Amino acid sequence: AVCSLSGRLSQQTFDSPSDKPQFPGASAEFVDQLEFIQPNVISGIPVYRVMDRKGQIINPSEDPKLSKETVLKFYQKMTLLNTMDRILYESQRQGRISFYMTNYGEEGTHVGSAAALEPSDLVFGQYREAGVLMYRGFPLDLFMAQCYANADDLGKGRQMPVHYGSKELNFVTISSPLATQIPQAAGAAYAMKTLNSNRAVICYFGEGAASEGDAHAGFNFSATLECPIIFFCRNNGYAISTPTNEQYRGDGIAARGPGYGMMSIRVDGNDVFAVYNATREARRRAVAENQPFLIEAMTYRIGHHSTSDDSSAYRSVDEVNYWDKQDHPISRLRHYMTARGWWAEDEERSWRKQSRQLVMEAFEKAERRLKPRPEWLFTDVYDENPTGLQKQQEALQRHLEQYKEHYPLDLYDK
């Protein structure tokens, strides 16, 4: 009897089907049928928008009700960027600068997001965020100086064109390699959290950059460390010549957010108000709650990837024309302003003429300016130059003195 009693005591009860798993790795339910999750079972994440293609507000409660002055600033920055793009693109084709990247079609993502941030928020861009910097007040003279790599360039001529940066405007200098800014932005946001600074970080990247390993690291660090950061993906349809259907099989980039534990939204990137609303709310909550947000702005790159690209090799003229003529962020905002009597043909003609004049004046000034001093090659890394670098600088000086007739030193700042 004792043996049978001890036998009964040693037996353990089996889990009932209603018991939940206790695994620490994920929250889930048990099932007793074998079934793989199909990628197309879940319908696509919807695209949030505020106004339609004709600039009409769809749901009045979502209208940000921005002042006439603010909306005009949106429009003027977007069109000024467009004008600067056209002139600098042409200058590269004429051999005046070495390289350029236009922002055609993506102006709404720049201005809408930039307007929703605080000036103290830190921006990590990819290389197609000139409108963010322009909205923050970066002057045309400095845009031109950077592209011409002249003596006024804040980077002292060390970067290729369009790789802007401004410490004053909290805009981290652009670097070419894809996605390197994503983990850097996560680290900056973690630092802001530890300082309790009431600041946020915004990190821009394209959907192509989201295929890099650095994107995984940045997303995961931000979620697990609970950082006040906005990941802003400009999904413009192409990673240079690779269309999205060759880049990934999932539902875009916003669908990845839940997998990392991030709040996510997909917005119409050609609707400047939708971008503004989404970024403003993400910024507010990122700082208040110390958590990352992922915004996927659906848009279209109307121009070539860069001056090194010919997009006619991989997409049709009809496709580009549709986005240029039927669904452009600038024309959509103009429809909105015209309907309210805030803008008319006279203002349009006057502003187009004035904006071109502003860009041309900065352009001509930059072209006349001397190049940076050769000795700046050796500065700004070390507080006191090490011996090896001093020897290199002395060797360059001796070489230039000996063979000065072969170098156009009169083109360089003294």
Automatic annotation (TrEMBL):
It is an enzyme of class 1 (oxidoreductase). Belongs to the BCKDHA family. It comes from the Eukaryota. Gene3D superfamilies: 3.40.50.970. Its EC number is 1.2.4.4. Transmembrane segments: none annotated. One of its GO terms (cellular component) is mitochondrial matrix. This is 2-oxoisovalerate dehydrogenase subunit alpha. GO terms for molecular function: branched-chain 2-oxo acid dehydrogenase activity; metal ion binding. Heterotetramer of 2 alpha/BCKDHA and 2 beta chains/BCKDHB that forms the branched-chain alpha-keto acid decarboxylase (E1) component of the BCKD complex. The branched-chain alpha-ketoacid dehydrogenase is a large complex composed of three major building blocks E1, E2 and E3. It is organized around E2, a 24-meric cubic core composed of DBT, to which are associated 6 to 12 copies of E1, and approximately 6 copies of the dehydrogenase E3, a DLD dimer. Interacts with PPM1K. Residues 76-374 form the Dehydrogenase E1 component domain. It comes from Paramormyrops kingsleyae.
